């Protein structure tokens, strides 16, 4: 062949299932103002993050509806750099 490959081909990348993208979440318990910070966790969604922190800190089932998970952006914006 003219391009130098002499009849062989490059292997194609195997298609795999996309990995679940984990996000850092800040989980707090709403008891009064301000909310009480509990922990950070890595999870695909807010509901999973709340469940993980509740189990890790042995939070009662009655208080779990008062959890709130806020997504933490690990990248700093140009505005916060000064």
Do you know the CATH architecture of the domain at 23-72?
A: Roll
Biggest sheet descriptor: 3 strands, antiparallel
Kindly report the CATH topology of the domain at 23-72: Ubiquitin-like (UB roll)
Helix content: 10-25%
Low-confidence stretches: none
* Widest sheet: strand ordering: 2-1-3
Q: Tally the helices: what do you get?
A: 1
Radius of gyration: 23 Å
- The N- to C-terminal Cα distance equals 58 Å
Shape: elongated
From N to C, what is the helix and strand string? EEHE
Structural class: alpha+beta
Number of E strands? 3
Strand content: 25-35%
Report on the structure:
The protein is α+β, with helices and mostly antiparallel strands. The protein has a domain at 23-72: Roll (Ubiquitin-like (UB roll)), CATH 3.10.20. Helix content is 13%, strand content 26%. The protein has 1 helix and 3 strands. It has one helix at residues 46-56, and strands spanning 23-29, 36-43, 67-72. A 3-stranded antiparallel sheet has the order 2-1-3. The longest helix is centred in the middle third of the chain and has 11 residues, at 46-56. The chain starts with 22 loop residues before the first strand and ends in a 10-residue tail after the last strand. The model has no long low-confidence stretch (mean pLDDT 81).
């Amino acid at each position: 062949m003219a391009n130098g490959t002499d009849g062989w081909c490059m292997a194609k990348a195997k298609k795999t299932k996309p990995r679940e993208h984990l996000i850092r979440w800040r989980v707090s318990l709403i008891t009064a103002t301000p909310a009480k910070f509990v922990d950070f966790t890595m999870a695909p969604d807010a509901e999973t993050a709340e469940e993980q922190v509740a189990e890790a800190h042995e939070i009662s089932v009655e208080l779990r509806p008062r959890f709130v998970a806020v997504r933490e952006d690990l990248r700093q914006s140009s505005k916060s750099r000064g």
